[in-house]
Each structure stands twice: as C-alpha cells, then as structure tokens.
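R.M. (postdoc): so does anyone remember the format we settled on? I'll just put the structure tokens first.
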C-alpha cells in the first residue's frame, strides 16, 4: 500500500469510527501507537489522517494530552440575544466559569467612547474562562462603567449569569447588543486557556450592549474555540 493510500485508509477508518459513535463527543482517542497498530499503518501515516480530520473539525489535538473528539458545538439561535449560561442550559449542558479578573481600572479612550463616559473614568473589568460540562469553550472579557455596575464587584460570577447579576444587583436590564464576529488564530496564552493548539481557529466576538433607552452599559470581548461555537443569523434582502 502506498503512503498516500495508507493515509487515505487511516482517514476513512477513523472517520467511520467517528460517524458510528465509537468515540463519544469529548472523549480522548486511543494513543497513536494503539491506533496505528489497529489500522496497520505507521504513526506518521496515522498523523496524516488525523491531521485531515482536524482540518475538518472532527478531532482536535491537545498538547501533551493526545487527540480528542470535540464536544457538542454550541450556537446561538438566529436573532436571539442569549447569555452563555442560557445557551448551555438550552442544550442540557452545565455552564462553568473561572473568574480570572474582577477589578476597577481607568477606561481607555476607545472604551470611554463606546460607553459614553469620560476618558479614564473608572470601569470594572471582569475576565472569565467559560466552559460547558467542564470543557473550556470561551475566554470572556466584559467592561462596564463603575458608577453603573458597582454591585458586580462583590458578585460571585463562577456559576451566575452576568446579565442576571446586572439586573438583580444594579437594576440594569440588557435590551440589545451590537455584535460583530471575526476569525482569528489562538496565541500561546489563549491556546493554554482553551486547551487547544497555538494557531488553532478561534472566533472573536466584539459587542456593545444597551438598555432599552439606548444607553450603552457593557462592552464584551469573547474568544471562542472555533471547533466549539457556531453563530447563526437570519439575513433578509430589502423588498
């Protein structure tokens, strides 16, 4: 069997195992030595097949840990503003969060412009690593004016929805969000947080959230694993 054909064989066999559910979502694949012996190919040939599956989003590689099947891809319903926790619960998954930062600092010029506050005004920055059923999915950063959201400084946001805490502690209800989504590659720090590889695809969400009267109250930056998030939208042509 030629090297090319052997790699194709490895790819086809592994793709079949994934289709029939031999490897469950979130599961770690057997080691490369075991798989190469089972498929009758070299480890280099096996890696070629795994690399093709990785490019298709069917598996992903974790440094020092091996190959894994991605967990269930999450996605936002079209034209619906949902929190991360709401998305998880809607799919029967358990949302998790690790708070990495929760403090006051001066606003940058860009933040002040978006939030319609004076430059260098105090803002609260909250950084969280969000996950579903224990798997890291999103690195989330939010920035809010301190004079509007001071109650969040003492909030325990490990298991709570920030939108819910903002409503209950500060009397602020988010009505709409101006949201943009771009593609990027994970650097070393982000790859470590999301347990993926350097250079892996990520989706970067940039939002400004408003109350019903049009007051901007929150800036958000969300970096999602590209193999675990899907954004959907309804698009219309003018009549």
């Amino acid at each position: 069997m030629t090297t090319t054909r052997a790699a194709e064989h490895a790819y086809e066999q592994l793709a079949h195992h994934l289709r029939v559910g031999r490897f469950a979502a979130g599961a770690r694949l057997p080691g490369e030595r075991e798989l190469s012996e089972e498929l009758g190919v070299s480890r280099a040939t096996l890696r070629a097949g795994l690399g093709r599956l990785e490019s298709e989003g069917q598996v992903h590689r974790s440094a020092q840990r091996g190959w894994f099947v991605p967990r269930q891809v999450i996605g936002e319903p079209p034209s619906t503003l949902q929190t991360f926790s709401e998305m998880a619960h809607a799919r029967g998954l358990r949302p998790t969060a690790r708070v990495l930062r929760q403090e006051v600092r001066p606003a940058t010029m860009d933040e002040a412009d978006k939030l319609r506050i004076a430059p260098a005004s105090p803002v609260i920055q909250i950084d969280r690593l969000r996950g579903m059923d224990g798997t890291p999915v999103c690195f989330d950063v939010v920035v809010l004016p301190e004079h509007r959201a001071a109650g969040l400084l003492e909030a325990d946001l490990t298991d709570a929805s920030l939108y819910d805490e903002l409503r209950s502690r500060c009397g602020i209800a988010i009505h709409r969000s101006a949201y943009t989504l771009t593609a990027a590659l994970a650097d070393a720090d982000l790859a470590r947080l999301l347990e993926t590889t350097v250079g892996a695809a990520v989706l970067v969400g940039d939002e400004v959230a408003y109350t019903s009267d049009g007051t901007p109250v929150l800036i958000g930056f969300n970096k999602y694993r590209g193999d675990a998030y899907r954004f959907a939208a309804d698009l219309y042509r003018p009549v």
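R.M.: ...and that's the designed sequence above, right after the tokens. Also worth knowing: Residues 74-231 form a domain with the Chorismate lyase fold (CATH 3.40.1410.10). The longest helix spans residues 3-19.
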